[in-house]
Fold this protein.
Amino acid sequence: MPQIAETVSRLGMGLMRLPCDEKGIDYPAAELMIDRLMEAGVTYYDTAWFYHENTSEDFAKKALITRFPRNKFTIATKMPLGEAEKNGGAQAIFDKQQENLGTDVIDFYLMHGINGGSIDHMARLGADEVVTKMKRGGRIRYNGFSWHGAADDLPKVLDGFDWDFCMIQLNYYDWLALDGQKLYKAAADRNIPLIVMEPVRGGGLAVCHPDVARVFEEADPAVSAASWALRWAGSLPGVDVVLSGMSNMHQVNENINLFSPLKPLTDDERGVIGKAMEAFKTLPLVPCTECNYCNKCPQSIPIPKLFGGKNDIVRFGSSWYMMNYKNWTKPENQITACTECGVCEAACPQGINIIERLKQLDAELS
């Protein structure tokens, strides 16, 4: 696969999980991280309209763009199509993003959160025309998208526009579990350069189930589980940038050491990753395939999403939305609303004892 026509560092900094205090982004702590990354030669910095409650682009301006020579780094941000639809269109949003960043040129400009229907959405908004015009005018250097859809829909989007690169979620767990291999192959077949997001799956592969962690500890007790995940992603041909949303100086230093330079996995080390993937398969999970047949629940309890979150807790130690599920479900749709009518169990092709499992989950969350 060809590389992006730009010299970028293999390690990229995602400005999505910066250290925060009660006022928002902790600027002194976050700026020290940026200083260390710049000193180490990290040149790819990724932000977006929505990150840190719409303040990440402004942080990029103040901590990066106004403090370092502009030719020493590249900046990436993303077009929020939904926001463009509500607030003046794609051109107005792009102009505002340039103002937020304080730069005449956005090096890497992505359509944000693209899925199978996004090509049509882009066309309706004229976002494709705006990107083409801005690129011709030198206000965008490279155009791409971040993928948040089904693997089977990716070829349609890849073939629907003249992309310079794409960004996909890719890690050794999702390689099979969420069709990561299909996503990778779709881009590889079209020779489209890749930027990898979530290589540690939002931290889930850094603090994973003890049975999985034990595989890595036995292979090399001095190396973190996160390092294995990052090296796996960085070892894939065609991956130009591995994006890491670093939150503290420890992560910054660990990642810099890992990528200075990155040593591709050996065959023996790939075997260790394979053992970790097998260990994930043996965990005590709810055997839910999220087929949604149980969505016939009269109380509209989001059973598949709850079981998916429970399984993430087992696999990775935590799940943000499960810890906050009462905020994303109405009281009348929470587990306590279950009347034990049995409609869900009658519809479940996996034969799961859903009612009892929900009771256990409610007790754990309480």
In short: The chain has 19 helices and ten strands. The first strand starts at residue 11 and ends at 14. The CA atoms of residues 158 and 190 lie 8 Å apart.
